[in-house]
Specification:
With 67 residues, this protein is mostly helical. The chain has 5 helices and 2 strands. α2 packs across α3.
Length: 67
């Protein structure tokens, strides 16, 4: 499973630094979420992303693939 944050930022015209400030996250956390380095997604962080981008379908947020 992969978080599609990088795609969401591109779609909505945000830079990583901008969304980090707006969601009160560290730029490092956003960078790691975008690059896939993070495999654990804090509930609070996901809630902020879902609220910010008005996500109603988890397929918008995550890409699920079989390894």
């Amino acid at each position: 499973m992969r978080l599609r944050l990088k795609e969401l930022l591109e779609k909505h015209g945000y830079e990583q630094k901008e969304i980090a400030e707006e969601l009160e996250l560290s730029t490092r956390a956003v960078s790691e979420l975008c690059s896939g380095k993070t495999k654990r997604y804090p509930k609070e962080t996901l809630e902020k992303i879902i609220d910010k981008f008005n996500i109603t379908d988890m397929n918008e947020l995550f890409e699920v693939h079989e390894d």
